[in-house]
From TrEMBL:
Residues 128-357 form the PPM-type phosphatase domain. Residues 1-43, 357-392 are annotated as: Disordered. The keyword Transmembrane applies. It comes from Streptomyces glaucus. It comes from the Bacteria. Residues 19-31 have a biased composition (Low complexity). The chain crosses the membrane at residues 45-65, 77-98. Keywords: Hydrolase, Membrane, Transmembrane, Transmembrane helix. Coiled coil: none annotated. This is PPM-type phosphatase domain-containing protein.
Length: 392
């Protein structure tokens, strides 16, 4: 199942990111977003009564006629045909009644599950502190709207903090683990002044969740979550902490470059975090530039011939079609290419997130960060997790 936020290809149903405000003083039917009663609501009981009552009345009439009326034929082909038709009609009505009840319960269960999944992996706002954001999520499980991939973007006093993660495995267990990590992130980003503090909070929350779920320390050690934390400050400086997750791509009008080369930390779960955590300084995100975050399900997707999905080539094609990296347009192009490559059936969960700096140009924070033309260079590949990388 596909779930997309803030922009989607036409072949995929878009999901709106707006939410209706609460109006406690209004009745439920008058509140914005409440479903208005339709004609089908009034006809529902009547259709159910006809489906079950009409065959019952016909059957009772036929049986009464045969038992009471002295002229009713007791034998013969006609009597058997009439009796068979009556019982067939009664059985058909009963089956239809049961089927309609089961479908009604299934629709209700799907609505409840959709509401719970939307609350867990809620759509990010289309704009946070001057950054345009769009995200899309594809679940490998056709019965679920979300899977083990997770993302979030939150505006704080320390800058815009972004989370992209991937839980090992699929199914309900992966969704529960994603919920534990997301809940901890949404609280920690406001409480922790530094990015390493946020990562340590995620690690502790994951450890508690795994111990509580499995009850076995050895079984919990087999689970892990890859995590990429980004912090984009008001001046455009990008800092990152990467725990075994794919590095994002930098997009602008002239290039597609992956921020690679830094030593990643191990995924959360199997190993403890090192005592000294130093964020990777990735330079500055210039106005007009964008970052493309993804999970490994995008690069590892294969076609029928076993060829991997060329993600970098798809991003290059998106920039050729849209020189200005608009997040919705980039996601639409990449998602369409990915579905075409996999035959509309990605074998693994996929999450994509694009954020573009739409802030007005600012003066560089230091003289050393200037280019020859006076601008500040965008993010560049980091060289070490402990040594910061300065802008060109």
């Amino acid at each position: 199942m596909i779930r997309i936020k803030a922009g989607a290809p036409r072949r995929v149903r878009p999901r709106t990111t707006s939410r209706a405000p609460a109006h406690p003083g209004l009745p439920a039917r008058a509140r914005p977003g409440a479903r208005r009663p339709s004609r089908e609501d009034g006809r529902g009981p009547l259709l159910r009564a006809l489906a079950l009552g009409l065959p019952t009345v016909l059957g009772a009439t036929a049986i009464t006629y045969r038992l009471v009326s002295p002229t009713a034929p007791q034998n013969g082909l006609g009597a058997r045909v009439v009796t068979g038709a009556v019982f067939f009609a009664a059985g058909t009505g009963l089956v239809l009644h049961v089927r309609r009840g089961l479908l009604r319960e299934l629709r209700q269960a799907r609505r409840v599950a959709g509401a719970a999944q939307s609350a867990l992996l809620r759509p990010p706002p289309p704009r946070i502190d001057g950054l345009d954001i769009a995200a899309v999520q594809l679940s490998a499980d056709p019965g679920a709207a979300i899977g083990g991939d997770l993302y979030e973007a939150v505006g704080t006093e320390h800058g815009v903090r972004v989370l992209m993660g991937d839980v090992r495995g699929h199914g309900i267990a992966a969704v529960e683990t994603a919920a534990a990590v997301l809940g901890s992130f949404r609280e920690a980003v406001h409480d922790e002044a530094e990015l390493p503090g946020v990562l340590r909070r995620l690690d502790r929350a994951l450890a508690r969740h795994l111990r509580r779920r499995s009850g076995d320390e050895y079984a919990a050690a087999e689970e892990f979550v890859t995590v990429l934390l980004l912090e984009i400050r008001p001046d455009g400086e990008v800092r990152a902490l990467n725990c075994g997750h794919p590095w994002p791509y930098l997009l602008d009008a002239t290039r597609v470059e992956q921020l690679a080369g830094a030593e990643c930390l191990p995924p959360l779960g199997p190993f403890p975090l090192p005592p000294d955590l130093s964020p990777v300084h990735c330079g500055h995100l210039l106005p007009g530039q964008a970052l493309f975050l993804h999970t490994d399900g995008a690069e590892d997707a294969r076609d029928a011939g076993g060829r991997f999905f060329p993600l970098a080539a798809a991003l290059t094609g998106a920039l050729h079609e849209h020189p200005v990296p608009v997040p919705q347009a980039v996601l639409r192009f990449v998602l369409t290419a990915l579905l075409r490559h996999t035959g509309d059936a990605p074998p693994d969960d996929v999450a994509l997130l694009v954020l573009r700096n739409d802030r007005p140009p600012q003066h560089p924070p230091t003289a050393g960060g200037r280019d020859r033309d006076g601008s500040v260079a965008g993010p560049r590949p980091a060289t070490s997790n402990a040594q910061p990388t300065t802008s060109l």
